[in-house]
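Ops channel
N.P.: pipeline sanity check, posting one input/output pair.
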């Protein structure tokens, strides 16, 4: 029931604090139209805000990521798992279209990160050499089946099977060659 002492609509909403259907509707319509007409200006404003506050935005994201790391990773995993087809086709398309750029970027990365990459490889090797208890032993069929699991990293496989990372990589190459020539 509208109170008739004032005119309902946008002025009823702002000047009289009225929240009747007519006032709500007029106001939300006005806001929608305003937003649409301002969309471009708002986008530009946000872009500027992001540009001038780049560092603090990144820092906030880093803090948020550290605080909610497990949750974020789990939610990303869930998304990937329910969008595998989309991801596969996206990757294939992206790789086909940007092959040269991607390879160039990989080369640049390895060129600049070579010392870090090498030291990571060496420290993994040292770590697994210390814990390996089956050095030089033959691989069983069960071992090879474990090595065929692409979700298992070389480090995980090495720790699981009591081998070094380099031994695991070598064995994996051998299995792959055998599969290709079989
Ligand atoms: Zn009203």
């Amino acid at each position: 029931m509208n109170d008739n002492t004032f005119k309902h609509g946008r002025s009823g909403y702002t000047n009289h604090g009225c929240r009747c259907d007519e006032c709500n509707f007029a106001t939300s319509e006005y806001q929608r139209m305003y937003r649409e007409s301002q969309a471009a200006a708002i986008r530009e404003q946000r872009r500027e805000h992001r540009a001038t506050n780049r560092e603090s935005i990144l820092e906030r994201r880093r803090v948020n990521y550290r605080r909610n790391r497990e949750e974020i990773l789990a939610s990303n995993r869930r998304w990937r798992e329910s969008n595998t087809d989309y991801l596969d086709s996206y990757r294939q398309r992206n790789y086909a279209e940007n092959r040269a750029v991607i390879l160039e970027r990989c080369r640049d990365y390895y060129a600049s990160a070579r010392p870090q990459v090498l030291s990571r490889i060496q420290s993994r090797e040292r770590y697994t050499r210390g814990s390996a208890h089956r050095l030089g032993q033959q691989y069983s069929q069960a071992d090879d089946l474990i090595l065929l699991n692409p979700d298992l990293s070389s480090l995980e496989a090495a720790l699981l099977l009591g081998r070094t990372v380099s031994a695991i990589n070598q064995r994996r190459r051998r299995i792959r060659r055998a599969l290709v020539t079989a």
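N.P.: looks fine end to end. Residues 2, 8, 12, 18, 20, 22-23 surround zinc ion (CB under 6 Å).
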